[in-house]
Each structure stands twice: as C-alpha cells, then as structure tokens.
Design goal:
single chain; alpha/beta; 5-stranded mixed β-barrel; 5 helices; 42% helix; binds zinc ion
C-alpha cells in the first residue's frame, strides 16, 4: 500500500467530514452500551450473477473471523456510527435501516458502492464496501481494519 493512500485516507476523512457525521461520532464515543437489534455488519461474497445491472451477492460462508475483527477497535466504532446513521436516516426518511455490508471480491482497490441484490432481495440503494478478499485482515499497513472503516465513511458521506 503506497504512502499516497495514507495521505488520501487522512485527507478524505478530514475534508469530507460533515457536521452530522461529527455529531454522531461524538454520540458513539460517549454513549456506553449502544447496540442495534440487527447484525451491524454483514460480510458478503459474489455469486458472479448480475440482475437489473446490479451484482447479486450472498452472505459469506466464512465471515466469522472478518466480522470479529471489523466490529472491534476503530473499525467497530465506524460500524456503530453507520448503524446510528442508518437509524437516523430511517427515522428521517422512512427507509429501513441496513447493516454495513462488506463484499470480499476479486477486485483491487476498495470501493464504496450502492445497490445490489442480497440473493433474491433487491437492495437498490443500500451502501456496501468492496474489498479484495486476499487483503490482510489486520496487523499491517493498508489492512482491512484500516481500509474498511475509511470506505464505510465514504458510504456514509454519499448516502442518498
Ligand atoms: Zn478515500
């Protein structure tokens, strides 16, 4: 992972932060025992199918290790922020809250995305993050536990 990515990471986080995100982040940091009734993170894998120009994704068969790491530490904080943002948007717009979705794909780069099918269920506006499945989970620069929260913040900032 080049040094540029690190600079981009900080630049994006600092320049893109909205007041709403800041306020919610403060809430996450200061509210003990916040918990959502649904799973806050769902790890997905590709099916290779496309429906109505959207990828068809399915729950990952070996999500436990990824889920355990990404729902803790800084990544876990962003996952909880995402849950609170979804709850806020749900109350403001009536759109049902979604968990944070992470697709482990064969694409390089790490991207915030919108719209997919969860098996047969259309989620045309739900946000998701696309990371390469062979990325390191943690413990080195550019690992999933650094990139996933970064991309999840992009999803928050670009939520419809
Ligand atoms: Zn970025």
């Amino acid at each position: 992972m080049p040094r540029r990515a690190n600079l981009d990471l900080f630049r994006c986080v600092l320049s893109d932060m909205t007041l709403r995100a800041c306020l919610v982040l403060i809430l996450v940091c200061t509210t003990p025992g916040f918990s959502a009734p649904r799973p806050m993170l769902v790890v997905l894998q590709p099916t290779g199918q496309v429906r109505n120009a959207l990828p068809v994704l399915t729950p990952h068969r070996e999500a436990a290790a990824v889920d355990r790491v990404l729902t803790h530490g800084f990544s876990g904080r962003l996952v909880r922020l995402y849950a609170m943002e979804q709850e806020y948007l749900g109350q403001a717009t009536g759109v049902a809250p979604e968990p944070a979705y992470l697709l482990l794909s064969t694409r390089q780069g790490g991207f915030p995305q919108f719209g997919f099918y969860l098996d047969d269920q259309a989620k045309t506006s739900a946000g998701w993050v696309d990371l390469h499945r062979s990325s390191s989970l943690a413990g080195r620069f550019g690992a999933m536990d650094q990139i996933f929260p970064h991309e999840l913040l992009h999803v928050i900032l670009h939520s419809p």
